[in-house]
Amino acid sequence: MSLSEIEEKLHKMESEALTSIDEAKSSEEVEALRLSLLGKKGELTNILQGLSGLDKDTRPIVGKRANEIKVKVQEALDKRKDDVFNLALEQKLAQEKIDITLPGNRLALGHAHPLSQITEEIIDIFYGMGFSVADGPEIETDYYNFDALNTPSDHAARDEQDTFYTNISPETLLRSQTSTVQIRVMEKGKPPFRIIAPGRVYRNEEVNARKYPLFHQVEGLLIDKDVTFGQLKGTLNLFIQRLFRSFGKPIQTRFRPDFFPFTEPSAELDALCPFCDGKGTNCRTCGQRGWLELLGCGMVDPAVLQAVNIDPEEYSGFAFGMGLERLAMLRYGIKDIRYFYSNHMDFLRQF
Ligand code: DAH
After folding, report:
1. Does one domain contain both 123 and 244?
2. Which of 297, 301, 318 for mutating ligand 1's site (highest number of atoms within 8 Å of CB)?
3. Based on the domain organization, do 85 and 141 belong to the same domain?
4. What is the residue-level pLDDT of the chain in tens, covering all 351 positions?
5. How many domains does the chain have?
6. Do residues 150 and 247 both lie within one domain?
7. Is the CB of 301 within 6 Å of ligand 1?
8. What is the pTM of this model?
């Protein structure tokens, strides 16, 4: 081969190599080219190895040219490798671009059930008057639910609360009132007492808009020396004003004589119906009566104190009990007790 033929061959090889490098699309392709162009079995290596067969005038010219090509190819390979990498990166970034103007996925934040909310409020109000919260079991014996509360087994008041008895034993029942906690608290401690006890109670009632076999009560008990009915009235009046303060006007109340086995005297606390201002005309909330029954209360019967070995000559007190659902229905204007247990989001979201 003449020198010009060799030079032409080298030139062709160079331009072909540079073109194929330019066309490489990935770093793998670039590396494959590096191997085939510059590797041990590559064309350029072949030529450089064949130099010894050339005559000594041609040899340095060809050698120099081949080395130039080698360097050029190396540079082109390195540059292409960078370019391919940057190109891939740009593509990736373009694909993964985040549109920060799109609205995010909202996580709905839950909140407490209206019954829990009103329980918290009631606890808060009584905390403010120095009461603390007490608790008792929902599965009770008839001693705590009735006997110790001055309601012996032949007492007519037992029939008023249609009680669920269990098959655990003839005495075991689901408490029908939170008044049980009065006994449990007084049994364990020493007077004075000032507690409220919110909790679930059960009665065998047919379900309708106002009744449900499971509902909630808040019990209250205050035992101390020289407690008066006036203090009972003051405490409950203040409580009612605070609970219904969202009505924006004072709630007029009255204490109407009633009967409970565990209090003497006993009373029902009524509120002048805030929905019809006591007029009653066409008012469904108060059933046209003009007054709403809010809770039962009274001075603790000496027999109850005696049952827990507290001397009624030394101590006296008052007690009260209210239905939570009923208060919540009045407070929020809810017409059907079943909403509380239906888990309808449309209902719950309103609170
Ligand atoms: N436990 C009564 C009931 O469920 C409510 C009640 C009335 C509780 C008078 C009291 C009270 O503590 O003094 O109907």
Report:
1. yes
2. 297
3. no
4. 788 888 888 899 899 999 999 999 999 999 999 998 888 888 788 877 877 788 888 888 888 888 899 999 999 999 999 999 999 999 999 898 888 899 988 888 899 999 999 999 999 999 999 999 999 999 999 999 999 999 998 887 777 778 999 999 999 999 999 999 999 999 999 999 999 999 999 999 999 998 999 999 999 999 999 999 999 999 999 999 999 999 999 999 999 999 999 999 999 999 999 889 999 999 888 889 999 999 999 999 999 999 999 999 999 999 999 999 999 999 998 989 999 999 999 999 999
5. 2
6. yes
7. no
8. 0.72
Query: Position 339: which residue type?
Result: Y
Q: From ligand 1's centre to the CA of 160, what distance in Å?
A: 12
Q: Are 232 and 297 in contact (CB under 8 A)?
A: yes
89 & 174 share domain: no
**DSSP string for residues in 142-178:** HHHHTGGGT--TT-THHHHS---B-SS-TTEEE-S-T
**Contact 118 CB / ligand 1 (< 6 Å):** no
Nearest to 316 by CA among 326, 306, 325, 324: 306
Two tokens at 26? 């990935």
Q: 143 with 10, same domain?
A: no
